[in-house]
Amino acid sequence: MGLIVQKYGGSSVADAASIKRVAKRIAEAKRAGDDVVVVVSAMGDTTDELIELANQITPLPPSREMDILLTAGERISMSLLAMAIANLGVEAQSFTGQQAGVLTDDVHGRARIIDVRASRIRQALDGGAVAIVAGFQGVNEQTNDVTTLGRGGSDTTAVALAAALRADVCEIYTDVDGVFSADPRIVPSARKLDRITYEEMLDMAASGAKVLMLRCVEYARRNQVPIHVRSSFSGHVGTLVTDEVVEGESMEQPIISGVAHDRSEAKVTVVGVPDVPGTAAQIFEVVAAADVNIDMIVQNVSAAKTGLTDISFTLPAADGQKATAALAVAQDRIGFESVQYDDTIGKLSLIGAGMKSHPGVSAKLFGALRDAGINIEMISTSEIRVSVITRSDQLDDAVRAVHTAFGLDSSEGEAVVYGGTGR
Asked: Among residues 13, 117, 275, 297, which is most buried (max CB within 10 A)?
């Protein structure tokens, strides 16, 4: 007998028929002898609909009330799923994040888990029941206020519970058959990966791959929780995310694991920056004070005649207005000429733990982009990743060209996205 934590995304429980299909899979796992904990997201587009409804009431809804509102979606899913499982003759009990013992900090809308006290979940399992937990939510122990974990919060809930319960595996069910070498909606010939390391998956998630969220993978790596990414629409074996080496398996990793892309970033260029010590620090201190995360940074060589330079950086497009407004306030103090904002960019990232020991990877990447007529605006590198910024409308072509150039195309037919979202 083992302990499995399963997580089902919104597309997997989008309607009554989908909930019944998921319930059947859970019941089969329980009857096979495993203890089962299930984390569930809100049905379909419920969360987006609740956000839209709140915005119809007020353009600035209080963050505390938004958290209470948004947790309703997962509560609906968990209770309906528990009913569906019970209808199959298997006992099931549903729990909110608070009831499940998910404790967070007090940051509404993007709270972080600080502890999981899963005694009630353990009691349910000891009593022979399947435990159904509402994902994406927790509670602050000091204020007793409900909190939400932000984007990908249900994935993080599942991994946190798996770590607290010492589960054998955390199964993340999506509407694709696993982690692919590229987004199968962009590259139908993308190849499913059988295994991938935490490090590679972290870089793929950070580079725009939507199948797993960054915080979920970070939590899994920190607690050594193996993740099995699978589809709730098929019975295929998925992708195992782990650093464990199977006996007899080759230690040699493929050079490239995949190509990720991201359209959610924008580029800010600070023009005419005095090229003197401390100026760049001032710029990024202003951005940091506005609570904006920065991804890639490029500084041009200063012009000899003027002593001025340009500094460009990328950031989430959703934070673009905050960053530019903060810089505008500090313009006279820092002494730069102007700020330019561009939200029509796309980021492509080539990822693979094997690339650090193989020369020529960058040359092949840039050659593929050149042959496809793709212009590069920024470049960033690490030991296992090379990222470039290009025009958003050229991004799909760039992904396909690079994917083919590195021999990642599958010979087993086109990948299937069952629910249409890739989540």
From this structure: 13
Architecture of domain 3-244: 3-Layer(aba) Sandwich (3.40)
With pLDDT > 90 as the criterion, what percentage of the chain qualifies? 79
262 annotated ligand-binding residue: no
Residue type, 230: R
The response to whether 133 counts as a known ligand-binding position is: no
Annotated binding residue 279: no
174 is in an annotated binding site: yes
Sheet holding 102-104, edge to edge: 113-116, 102-104, 137-140, 146-148
Q: Of 122, 85, 119, nearest to 101 (Cα)?
A: 119
Instruction: Confirm whether residue 211 is marked as ligand binding.
Output: yes
9 marked as binding residue:
yes
Q: Is 7 annotated as a binding residue?
A: yes
pLDDT digits over 177-225, tens only?
999 999 988 999 999 999 999 999 999 998 888 888 889 999 999 999 9
47 is in an annotated binding site: yes
Residue 294 above 50 pLDDT?
A: yes
The domains of the chain are located at 3-244
